[in-house]
Amino acid sequence: MAARRSADPAKTRAAVAAVTDWLRDGDRPEPARAELAEAVRLTARTLAAIAPGASVEVRVPPFVAVQCISGPKHTRGNPPNVVETDPRTWLLLATGLLSLADAAVQLSGSRAGEVAQWLPLVPIQG
Questions:
Q1: Where are the beta strands (DSSP E) in 34-89?
Q2: Whole-model pTM?
């Protein structure tokens, strides 16, 4: 397994800035796959860095899955606490343009909702 890479705050802000217009207006064309992937990966890695642990897994297919939030850790099989969503919804959450309560997100496990206390990661104005 590849080593976990951390997110540089300046690179994360730049990656989010590159997709901000699309986040604000869903009628705009989707950003290039590389731009979208970079923003998703860096924001997810930011979450893992500021909420270290392995009790909740955040999945944003096809780009990233990270473990975060301290507490009981899983090591094999499906994790008991999972947050899974699409890239656009994840970025809306990460930027504060959408709350977890209002998002179309799959939450499983009693601790999955704890992710909300760490959001937004890179706030932008709506």
A1: 56-60, 64-68, 82-84
A2: 0.91
